[in-house]
Amino acid sequence: MAVNKLAIKTRIRSVESTSKITKAMQLVAASKLKRQKEHMEKNREYAYYFKETVSEILPTIKFSKHPFLKANAEGKPLTIVFTSDMGLCGGYNANVYRMIQEEIGEDDPIIMVGSRGEGWIHHRSFRVIKTVSGMDDNDYGMIASLADEALAMFCRQEIASIRILYTHFKNAVTFEPQLVTLLPIEAEADEQQITRDTIFEPEGDKILDTLVPMYVRSLLFSYYLETKTSEQASRRTAMETATDNADELRTTLELQYNQARQAAITQEITEIVGGANALE
């Protein structure tokens, strides 16, 4: 019984140590989530109005043959996939992997962002043309470089379209992977907009040549910030769950320890009483 109590006590100490670690990681993730969410919301508003502006302009332009407005006949769709560089974030990456397998063909080119995704896809037969890892949480320069590289491939007609697989952030407990198309830009026809007499200076095609690269960089960075925010939210939730589970296990082990201790005391009392009765 003494050995059993010692083993239980050792497990209790181990669980308490684990609980302290997961609690600390939960607090760190919560702090990062708050900061990352602020960055995301500020940029999301800018990206939203940028997208709205482009959507309002496109229906008034009488040149649907512009290369940014139609998919290339040659090539496969390029998908930029966002995953995390670190683990301990629950099912965050697993959900992205599942969508890759469901939505992306093995011959479709992929740019994989995040060391976790790089490690996962390395053992599979997907066509990865580039991997990026170790990016800062708000690395606009690297995102802009990726956007320009993808845009250049689209202009050279090496790819049919540009798609983004990211994790959409709804709230601190709800986030899900989404696959969206950046290029070609789909203009939704609006009769009221089309009938307006809009004058462009310079010409509309030149406006698009300047506006679309800015549009692609803006939206790609916005999706990246959403992904990083979702990652921190998932990590905070995972560490909170781990801490709660550790606390529950500690309570169970403490109960087992007390029961073992009481049983040992009862046995000792029984032996003492039995010995006293034998002496009589």
TrEMBL record:
<dbReference type="InterPro" id="IPR000131">
    <property type="entry name" value="ATP_synth_F1_gsu"/>
</dbReference>
<dbReference type="GO" id="GO:0005886">
    <property type="term" value="C:plasma membrane"/>
</dbReference>
<keyword id="KW-0066">ATP synthesis</keyword>
<dbReference type="InterPro" id="IPR035968">
    <property type="entry name" value="ATP_synth_F1_ATPase_gsu"/>
</dbReference>
<keyword id="KW-1003">Cell membrane</keyword>
<comment type="subunit">
    <text>F-type ATPases have 2 components, CF(1) - the catalytic core - and CF(0) - the membrane proton channel. CF(1) has five subunits: alpha(3), beta(3), gamma(1), delta(1), epsilon(1). CF(0) has three main subunits: a, b and c.</text>
</comment>
<keyword id="KW-0375">Hydrogen ion transport</keyword>
<protein>
    <recommendedName>
        <fullName>ATP synthase gamma chain</fullName>
    </recommendedName>
</protein>
<dbReference type="GO" id="GO:0046933">
    <property type="term" value="F:proton-transporting ATP synthase activity, rotational mechanism"/>
</dbReference>
<dbReference type="GO" id="GO:0045259">
    <property type="term" value="C:proton-transporting ATP synthase complex"/>
</dbReference>
<keyword id="KW-0406">Ion transport</keyword>
<keyword id="KW-0139">CF(1)</keyword>
<dbReference type="InterPro" id="IPR023632">
    <property type="entry name" value="ATP_synth_F1_gsu_CS"/>
</dbReference>
<comment type="function">
    <text>Produces ATP from ADP in the presence of a proton gradient across the membrane. The gamma chain is believed to be important in regulating ATPase activity and the flow of protons through the CF(0) complex.</text>
</comment>
<dbReference type="GO" id="GO:0005524">
    <property type="term" value="F:ATP binding"/>
</dbReference>
<comment type="similarity">
    <text>Belongs to the ATPase gamma chain family.</text>
</comment>
<keyword id="KW-0813">Transport</keyword>
<dbReference type="GO" id="GO:0042777">
    <property type="term" value="P:proton motive force-driven plasma membrane ATP synthesis"/>
</dbReference>
<keyword id="KW-0472">Membrane</keyword>
<dbReference type="Pfam" id="PF00231">
    <property type="entry name" value="ATP-synt"/>
</dbReference>
